[in-house]
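Lab notebook, bench 4. Still working through the backlog of constructs that have no structural model yet. Next entry is a single chain of 379 residues. Request: give me the structure tokens for it.
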Amino acid sequence: MKIPFNKTTLIGNEIEYLKEVIDSGYLHGDGPFTHKCHKLLEEKFVTKKALLTPSCTLALEMSYILCNFQPGDEVIMPSFAFVSAASSLMIHGAKPIFVDIREDTLNIDENKIEEAITPKTKAILIVHYAGVSCEMDKIMEIAKKHNLFVIEDAAQAVDSKYKGKFLGTIGDVGCFSFHGTKNVVCGEGGAIFINNPELIDRAEIVWEKGTNRKKFIRGEVDKYTWVDLGSSYVMADLLAAFLYYQLKNVDEITNRRKEIYDYYYQNLAGLEKEGLIKLPTIPSECKSNYHLFYIILPSNEIRNETLKKLKEVGIQATFHFVPLHDSPMGQKLGYEKGNLPTTEKISSCLLRLPFYNSINRDEQDYIIKNLKEILRSSH
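Model written out:
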């Protein structure tokens, strides 16, 4: 049996929506399906303003412009994160200040944030790992106390909640991904949620290349012109059409992924009792979207050997984030191995199992059977 790590799954009528866009001749940005997506996102997830972007990376870049990061500004964030969160931050002149993560949720350790704050700190950038929320009450309390922006990297967290609130709607700005590896997809794409009302007007301008084109379209000005910083952050309507059908069925997608997640969890619980793995944690105040399923192995050697043996039987499992602080760029910022021990330990021992909407029970059984055999034989 050959089982890929990920496979994009059509939910239903995506092709019909694509055909509708092609027939209309309006394939470029800010078209009818873009407007439908914006309306759906704002109503479903209860945010003041939603804008589609070509990627989550560009949604993050937009948020950095909106927060007006300047050279020398510092932004506190986890090292256990995707590289573009930090790389695009540095493009805007700001410096990432890396903080360690919690061992249970693998999210930023909220108890280590305040000690990293300096007079140069401008914002806290959090990552909701695997669709499980950071400890938002404490983070928002710290941000309010120190007058900091909160940017939610919710790339993995569409349809996840914290204490009943959707992730990406709690901080000043939320950023999402609809990349082909995510729960809701359109190939490449993202979105930015503007929750701070003071940022909404400027967000429309930044989104439209620094122009007041949206005001022109609404008839508020007789022509549009360049008024601020910005770039081409608009998603093609062709992609928005594919995305719209997926978004309409986000609850169905989440429910399906919960079935897959629960089946893994229930059938691998024995390995955890034997001390061979550690399973994921979802705190009671969090509602996950079940973006991925990972296990933590006892050591890097066991993780790597397990990956190798799974590959030999046709199972494409993988690792995840390589710590940013221990990268060549992180070292240029003055970090070194040993600075963030939990991040380093988790990164070296984490293994992600194949997870996609169309994975079937036979495939999961094959993965579970082989994983048990590999781990028990090596113990």
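Notes after review: Residues 250-273 form the longest helix (24 residues). The radius of gyration is 21 Å. Flag for follow-up if needed.
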